[in-house]
User: What shape does this take?
Amino acid sequence: MKSVLKIFIVLFSLAFVLSCGKKAISKKDPINIELNDAVIQQILNIRSKRSADGKSNVEALKTFLTVDNPAHRYMAALALASLQDTSAISALADALEDPYDEVRRAAAFALGQTKSISAAQILSEAFRADSVRTVQAAILEAVGRCGGEKELKSLCVAQPYPIQDSLLQEGLALAFYRFALRKMVQPEGTERIIKDFISNAFMPPAARFVAANYLARVPGLDLSPYENLLIDNVEGEKDPNTLMFLVTGLAKTKGLKALETLDNSFYSNKDYRVRCQIIRGMQYFPYDSTIGIVKDALKDTSVHVRVCAAEHLIGFGKSRDAANYHDWADKHPNWLVRIKLLTAALSNTEYYKNQEKSFYSTKLMERFRKSENVYEKAEILQALSHYSWNYRYLSDAMFPKSDTVVLSPVLKSAAAQALVSLYKSPSLSIELNFSTARVKEEIHQTFRKAIESGDVGVVAIIAEAIADEKNNLKAAFPDYNFLKDAQRRLKLPRDVETYIYLQNAIDYLSGTKTKIKTPLNFVEIDWHFINALGSKPKVSIETNKGKIVLELYPKEAPATVMQFVHLVKAGYYNNKKFHRVVPNFVAQAGCPRGDGWGGFDVNVVSEFSMLRYLREGRVGMASAGKDTESAQFFITHAPTIHLDGNYTIFAQVIEGMNVVHKLEIGDSMLKVELIR
Assistant: This one.
């Protein structure tokens, strides 16, 4: 009986992946989306509106899936993809039989966005019934977004596609990748990624790119058996977008030959993003075998590589070299690298060397007093969290004893984050010894004072720490009314992120689970304004490093584009800082506070489309969760497909990408304007 069952499972798997459906319908005429179409406007208005209790009108959108106009059906499916409501699954299942390929693709995307296992079952059946490769590829990726163990195992054992079938190859790779992002990984799936996608020189580049992402982003993979294979791929890969992920996969093999290959690639590769990933990969090798390349990376032509090298030493340095890190810091011209090297000296000094720790702390405090750069001062506060006896200095930095001192929100939130990091450190009880209980009680009092201060960034950071059960703070706050008082004082929707963190803290301390409902104020789309912009409106961002030009996407994200342009025309973004820059990831800006915790008095709904973060220079909206977008945005340094379907894409850099790659924390947008 078991053997019969196994045969049935294999046959089902083969049918799922290989079967070409009986349905031969395929409308080839492209669907034309016109934003002056009154029905499309109505569909997008419905997507952008919420009732008083935060509900979307899913039922209204479902009716548009059955109208005669394919453009309207297509837009309705995409609107439902943004709403991610499981009540639309049945209607979307019917849309998988639409005569237009694009409508079926959009329906598949929307079903995947629901993250429902019932949607995965519907998608599996639709795959067998369809014969259009673009649709089948979309279905495969969607299954990866919502499928369960059954669907994953089916993909693992299914027969490979013909090598020339590039669409299905990419779709299958994306399915494995989407499963992995949801922490669903099978050894057989990883083996397929290696053998079918990486080792096959004829594999379409798009599928290889996704497979390389899989190797880089899935934690805990044992890639040591594939060292030689990955060496060959790294040495032969010409596309930096794939190579930057392949080098991470090669580093995970932890082999000596792998290290030699990475070393050679570091010195020969001109793309700083690849060099960043190589330095990050040094964590998988012994310190003594990597310190040479890391030291050279501190002198790299790219500041991002230098930052990666300093960050590597913070996490993986050695105590015996702490003095060297200090010396390198003194000589380094870049303030961020300099502070991170001092952080490495402090963090890698053993707990019992109080004299050395005090020396490095004093050096940091001296730089804090002399610096006029608020972001440098914030970085110094983070550095000081690596020595427990600095707890009072951090508390005083958050609450100066002099009433005449006016603190920047950037410093307030940095001090709060540093104090939380210090409190959570495993070194706390070791360094403080018998003073641990007393100091913890003092920090608890500071935490409460921080909540009562009403600063939204500080409140959010402390509330998040209280809500984290690993910190075991229930006993410290038996009376949590001060959290409720702080929540009542918030201004919504501006402070929605802080509101959510406070509610999580209240729930943890009370032992309850509240379904959070926050009053949000969503913008209404002004269609005259949108249509007056034209089909390809552009925005120029003049920074202190040069000019960046964005092309906006009103068809994919009209509410976001409208809000962004309104803020641009109002001069809101002028002189705002890039408050967050993560090497080979993003440069983020637009926060009114300058620390990432600031919101705005209106919200924009999430507008998820089938655009993907497949290119560098994608411009997306930062958010604290679905439908909380406001004013902050980010620009990507590289393809970041793990963001697909979770962050609105509303623009693309078309000029000045070299400027984006030069941006550092604290750089300014001097002037932002709409251009014709």
